[in-house]
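User: Before I run my own analysis I want an independent prediction to cross-check against. Here's the chain; please return only the structure tokens and, at the end, one sentence I can use as a sanity check.
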Amino acid sequence: MDRAFSRRAMLGVAAAAGLSIAACSRSEESSGTSTTSTVSNTDAVAIATDAYIFGYPLVLMHATADSSGPVNRFRHARGLPTAADRILARTNLDTLYSTAWLDLSGEPMVLQVPAIAHGRFWLMQLLDAWSNTVHDPSSMRPRGRPDPPFTYLITGPGWTGRVPDGLTHLPMPTNTVWLLGRVQVDGVDDLPAVRAIQDQLRLAPLPAWLADHGAPTPGAPITRGQGFHTSPVADVAALDGRRFFDRLCGLMAADAPARADAPALKRFAGIGIEPGGSADALRLADLNAAAADARKTIANYVDPGAHTENGWLFHDNLGSYGTDYRLRAATALGGLGAQPRGDAVYPTIEAPAADNDGVPRTFRLRFEPGQLPPADAFWSLTAYDSDNFLVANPAGIYTVGHQAPPVAGPDGAFEVLVQNADPGPAVPHGNWLPIPATGTFSLTLRLYAPRPEATDGSWKPPRLNPVS
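Assistant: Structure tokens:
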């Protein structure tokens, strides 16, 4: 059994489906000898390619869950990342994560968010097994009762019990759920306050909650290599075609596709890829070809719903994907857990850090008076190197805006100097963002709880203007 899937991906799925493991898994030597009598070999590969794209988020979500420790228990990020941390690509320094993988097949779970000081942003995002955001209570829209603590009952499909008084019901369409929580952190000095909030987050099965008046199972810290890393992507990519599709068949038996997926499922069933099914009728070589084609399609996908404003790329359709399977798969590969734009928007821009002669370049980003990023919570601007990690620099400056607000000039505009060299003490701390001396770099603006003008196109980020 593959390491990344050892905890439940087969045993739990087989039990839920009423199947033996063998019903959806074959030995590595099994290669298949023919396609079905009604589907040509060429068509079968094309169908399998689409099935891989369809199922990729489900397989990746379970791989990520299986690499993240026990279910139904919080894991908390306790510190801020630096350029030395090369685990989570495009990390942010604005929030600390509190994450848990829920298994709702046995009983519902209760989540309680304590009273948090007004003005401190928090978000508790709930994703189903297919990577769709289903619920996203936050400091801006807490749901349920008007005053804290905010207590939520998270239930799986088919649950028919009574919702206890004081709990807000958040039903989920799958039993596997990713709870991805974020709490605003205002720099290193603010870490103790955020850790205290994390320690008050409560997560417990409903019976235990009722019996113990909400006494939670203590959370654990996220340590290096746990919780947020890229190894699940590598684990899934390492699966050959047969193992991937056998995995997909089993996982679909436990975390069912949506009703809207019925036409696609009917097509996939023609080659045996269905909940509790098997792709044994196809040759291993054909399954591998389909997997390779699908991985290439996912990696090269360009979102037609994306748009640019002054060179900044916006994605307006992330978080819930319906039947847009290619967008769903590409987002899972590049940013599993993407938030809906009502919670945050992340316009991004990329440029070469040096000119054709290798001389480091200098850029300016000028926000005219009244044109700072419009967000009801806060905003930040972070730089990344060509590998999508924080930019190493002697000053240890990785982001401006939120923790280091820029200072306005005499004309009321805010100028951020974007360059590798330290501009010296004449430039305020929040007005310089270091970038690499060579290669490419990218900038990401993060607007938490964006205002309508940030999502309807009436506000546009300024151009990144080269000075030299």
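Sanity check: Confidence is low (pLDDT under 50) at residues 1-37, 224-230.
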